[in-house]
């Protein structure tokens, strides 16, 4: 059966006269022609994979930078441990500014908010039933703004009155709630302390009558507590039960009959954990960078094209691409240079400080070369240094430098002056910026001014050119076979005419 197809409107004769499978013949001819395009497509896929792998390395660098940042500042080494003898009544945490020592807190009373509660209404009260009394009420709350609510006899209901009050909560700070179990109205405020107030002006007594209210005014009270020697008439007050005092964040939970002791001491545990995380993140970088830069590419596994994937299962594709992706960063100079820079930063002594090397506080390079220069911690030595000479440990990580300038001499001097967390933080930022210049900040397929972005642009342009050329080549093949078919058809027509003429003799 003949098959006529079109491309840019040319008519193709595909074997009607010759009996040949023209489409298949052209397809086979084009396979060789498509090899350069397939090669470029694989290069593009490899480039995208390389970009993704660089970003994975940048993610690891970001985690390392975060660990370094946690040790750059002196406040990181001033963490305090705060212990309350009765955390159920007085819960306390401390900032770096909390004074070390012993404190006492006695809670005389907690801060409360203003509230009004009505008496129980009749058991058969229906909240959607209309009321038989009316009048205007004015509500003033802690936000200082008064609002008027109208109650209309024969029209308003308990539900509508509560809805009207709550519609003004953002203005007054007063919230209404009717509890159907106890049949009571509750008016509350969203703040505590003496500035918390509720005042309901009800000249018609409609509100008092409907909700069985005895009182229409209420004020909150401040928390009152004794702190150290501030006792008796000198006791302190707070509008809230949560406040900061003398570097301590205090949460009062319940009144106490006896003072609660609060002990503040310097905590080395947090600093120790931060240093340990810093070392762990560096070792992770060493493992990842060493792995990707030393893994060679297996040339027998190339990126798959769509037509190749169509012949494979998802599992086969996954396994193949895992092999094909390996080696995208083999012997990469950027990553190897980053490791070299980090090692120099760890190796150079710190000038003008008690400790000059990390090894003096128990952090040293592993002796086995198979570990590729990873660090290990002598935990006992580090804990001892944090206990006996914490300020020197702090300087070892946080010491700043006043040297600036891009000359080699200035850079070397600055490195020797910077604490180890500071110098590593700068170095990590430098490496992240180098990678970003190489891969850009957009998606893995974005065209930008980065090195890989420009490479990707060039490949896309070549792919477009090749696709246009392949279309022209394919059209030329079809044109030749179409001319052949037309010639054969003409011969067939002539043969048929001759046969008909001869048969008539």
Automatic annotation (TrEMBL):
It is found in: Secreted; Bacterial flagellum. Residues 222-493 form the Flagellar hook-associated protein 2 C-terminal domain. It comes from the Bacteria. Residues 18-113 form the Flagellar hook-associated protein 2 N-terminal domain. Keywords: Bacterial flagellum, Cell projection, Cilium, Coiled coil, Flagellum, Secreted. InterPro entries: Flagellin_hook_IN_motif, FliD, FliD_C, FliD_N. Residues 418-476 form a coiled coil. One of its GO terms (cellular component) is extracellular region. One of its GO terms (biological process) is bacterial-type flagellum-dependent cell motility. The keyword rRNA processing does not apply. It holds the Pfam family FliD_C. Belongs to the FliD family. Required for morphogenesis and for the elongation of the flagellar filament by facilitating polymerization of the flagellin monomers at the tip of growing filament. Forms a capping structure, which prevents flagellin subunits (transported through the central channel of the flagellum) from leaking out without polymerization at the distal end. Homopentamer. This is Flagellar hook-associated protein 2. It comes from Paenibacillus vortex V453.
């Amino acid at each position: 059966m003949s098959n006529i197809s079109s491309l840019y409107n040319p008519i193709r004769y595909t074997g009607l006269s010759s009996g040949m499978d023209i489409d298949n013949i052209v397809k086979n001819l084009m396979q060789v022609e498509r090899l350069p395009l397939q090669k470029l497509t694989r290069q593009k896929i490899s480039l995208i994979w390389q970009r993704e792998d660089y970003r994975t390395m940048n993610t690891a660098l970001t985690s390392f930078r975060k660990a370094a940042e946690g040790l750059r500042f002196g406040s990181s080494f001033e963490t305090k441990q705060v212990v309350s003898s009765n955390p159920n009544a007085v819960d306390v945490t401390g900032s770096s500014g909390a004074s070390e020592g012993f404190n006492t807190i006695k809670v005389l009373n907690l801060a409360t908010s203003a509230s009004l509660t009505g008496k129980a209404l009749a058991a058969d009260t229906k909240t959607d039933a209309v009321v038989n009394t009316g009048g205007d009420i004015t509500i003033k709350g802690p936000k200082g703004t008064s609002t008027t609510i109208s109650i209309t006899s024969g029209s308003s209901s308990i539900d509508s009155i509560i809805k009207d009050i709550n519609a003004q909560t953002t203005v007054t700070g007063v919230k209404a709630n009717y509890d159907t179990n106890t049949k009571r109205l509750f008016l509350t405020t969203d703040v505590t302390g003496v500035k918390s107030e509720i005042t309901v002006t009800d000249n018609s007594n409609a509100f008092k009558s409907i909700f069985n209210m005895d009182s229409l005014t209420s004020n909150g009270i401040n928390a009152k507590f004794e702190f150290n020697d501030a006792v008796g008439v000198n006791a302190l007050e707070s509008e809230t039960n949560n406040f900061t005092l003398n570097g301590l964040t205090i949460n009062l939970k319940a009144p106490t009959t006896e003072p609660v002791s609060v002990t503040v001491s310097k905590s080395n545990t947090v600093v120790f954990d931060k240093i340990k995380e810093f070392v762990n993140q560096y070792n992770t970088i060493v493992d990842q960078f060493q792995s990707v830069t030393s893994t060679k590419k297996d040339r027998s596994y190339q990126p798959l094209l769509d037509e190749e994937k169509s012949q494979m299962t998802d599992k086969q594709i996954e396994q193949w691409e895992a092999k094909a992706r390996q080696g995208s960063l083999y012997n990469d100079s950027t990553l190897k240079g980053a490791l070299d820079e980090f090692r120099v930063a760890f190796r150079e002594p710190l000038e003008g400080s008690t400790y000059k090397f990390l090894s003096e506080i128990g952090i040293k390079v592993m002796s086995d070369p198979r570990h590729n220069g990873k660090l290990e911690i002598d935990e006992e030595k580090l804990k001892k240094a944090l206990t006996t000479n914490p300020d020197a440990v702090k300087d070892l990580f946080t010491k700043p430098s006043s040297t600036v300038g891009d000359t080699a001499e200035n850079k070397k001097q600055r490195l020797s002056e910077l604490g180890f967390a500071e110098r590593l933080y700068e170095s990590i930022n430098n490496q992240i910026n180098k990678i970003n210049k190489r891969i850009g900040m957009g998606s893995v397929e974005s065209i930008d001014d980065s090195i890989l972005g420009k490479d990707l642009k060039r490949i896309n342009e070549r792919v477009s050119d090749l696709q246009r050329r392949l279309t022209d080549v394919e059209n030329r093949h079809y044109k030749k076979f179409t001319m052949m078919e037309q010639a054969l058809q003409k011969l067939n027509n002539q043969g048929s005419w001759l046969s008909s003429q001869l048969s008539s003799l």
